[in-house]
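RECORD TYPE: inverse folding
INPUT: structure tokens
STRUCTURE:
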């Protein structure tokens, strides 16, 4: 589809929430590409920590980094859904936010080492142009002016606090014991801005199907980490063993797992649920943090599998090899289990369908647990990777058959 040239200036009016055929714009897709770098760097740092068995030390840094990535992306996405007028000024401010993403990406490794300044600077560069966008939206949409300007004020105030935190940390003005409590407080303040701004009856005019599509596209971007992990695992086998049956199993297992998780995510009728119940948007949108973070961590786990497969098998040390293989498969299975649980929770929250699927999700989680259990009992790692897809396949089959035979039990209520 051809994208028309931007006009020099156009009032930022609210979009029609019932607009037909509303899809992601080429600019939004370009914006998403800048986050590929940030997600990849966060996942890479987690992978290095897993490889050195320092997961507990790295996990807080990973969560902070991924929060900043997710929150900046999500805020831009919801604003664009409501007020994207695609004029030249809007495009320039989007470019500024993209630059902030790249600056933030260079600061991601520092977040894992307690060095926050560059990450906070990039984060502010992502967020502050959005304040001006909200001011423009308020000027162009008098009915929602107070909502837009509350957004602008809330985002601006929190960014100032982030910058003060970064300056205090870089100058050692902040006691070591106050660092993480301050970070948690700032994250909570960020999360409270949208509910505070949207209070009242005149909410921003975001488009439900457009939002659902944007989240699904970001899910696909993060699934790219799983595909990358699978590719690296295959490359490791080729380097060590050449072409082999294990090579086929690893390629099939990793690709099948990514495909099944993609299919499971798209079983959720997000667009229809948000269209019928706009009041469920906050829980649905915020809950995706855990889905996105666990999915990126799964890609890191597949990189750990790749590392494990680089080790030439030594029959003289079976116990150490089995322990290493167990750690590798667990690095995939644990985030996979979290992703499956979060997807089920989002499905329950958004649809309130008659079929709760609680028994099904417990069965799927049990099947995921079979992978590490089987590897601990001596099953080769490539076969354990294959086994992780069993639970998702069962869930997919149940839902696809259920929608055909008892569609009323799966309807949004």
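DESIGNED SEQUENCE:
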């Amino acid at each position: 589809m051809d994208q028309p040239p931007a006009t020099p200036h156009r009032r930022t009016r609210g979009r029609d929430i019932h607009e037909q055929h509303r899809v992601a714009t080429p600019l939004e897709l370009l914006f998403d590409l800048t986050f590929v770098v940030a997600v990849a760097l966060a996942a890479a740092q987690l992978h290095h920590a897993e490889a050195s068995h320092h997961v507990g030390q790295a996990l807080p840094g990973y969560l902070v980094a991924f929060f900043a990535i997710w929150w900046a992306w999500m805020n831009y996405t919801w604003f664009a859904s409501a007020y994207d007028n695609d004029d030249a000024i809007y495009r320039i401010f989007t470019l500024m936010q993209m630059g902030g993403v790249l600056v933030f990406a260079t600061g991601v490794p520092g977040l894992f080492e307690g060095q926050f300044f560059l990450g906070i600077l990039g984060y502010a560069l992502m967020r502050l142009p959005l304040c001006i966008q909200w001011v423009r939206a308020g000027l162009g949409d008098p009915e929602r002016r107070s909502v837009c300007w509350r957004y602008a004020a809330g985002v601006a105030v929190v960014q100032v606090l982030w910058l003060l935190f970064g300056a205090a940390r870089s100058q050692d003005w902040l006691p070591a014991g106050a660092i993480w409590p301050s970070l948690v407080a700032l994250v909570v303040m960020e999360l409270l801005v949208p509910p505070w701004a949207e209070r009242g009856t005149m909410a921003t005019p975001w488009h439900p199907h457009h939002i659902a599509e944007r989240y699904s596209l970001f899910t696909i971007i993060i699934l790219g980490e799983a595909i990358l992990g699978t590719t690296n695992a295959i490359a490791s086998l080729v380097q060590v063993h050449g072409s082999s049956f294990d090579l086929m199993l690893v390629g099939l297992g990793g690709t099948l797992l990514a495909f099944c998780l993609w299919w499971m995510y798209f079983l959720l009728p997000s667009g229809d649920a948000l269209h019928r119940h706009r009041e469920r948007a906050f829980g649905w949108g915020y809950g995706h943090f855990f889905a996105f973070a666990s999915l990126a961590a799964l890609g890191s786990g597949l990189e750990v599998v790749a590392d494990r497969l680089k080790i030439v098998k030594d029959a003289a040390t079976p116990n150490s090899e089995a322990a290493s293989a167990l750690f590798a498969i667990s690095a995939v299975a644990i985030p996979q289990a979290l992703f499956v649980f979060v997807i089920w929770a989002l499905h329950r929250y958004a649809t309130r369908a008659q079929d709760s699927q609680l028994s099904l999700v417990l069965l799927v989680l049990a099947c995921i647990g079979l992978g590490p259990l089987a590897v601990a009992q001596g099953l080769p790692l490539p076969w354990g990777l294959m086994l992780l897809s069993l639970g998702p396949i069962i869930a997919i089959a149940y839902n696809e058959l259920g929608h055909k035979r008892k569609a009323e039990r799966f309807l949004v209520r």
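NOTES: Residues 56 and 206 are 38 Å apart (CA to CA).
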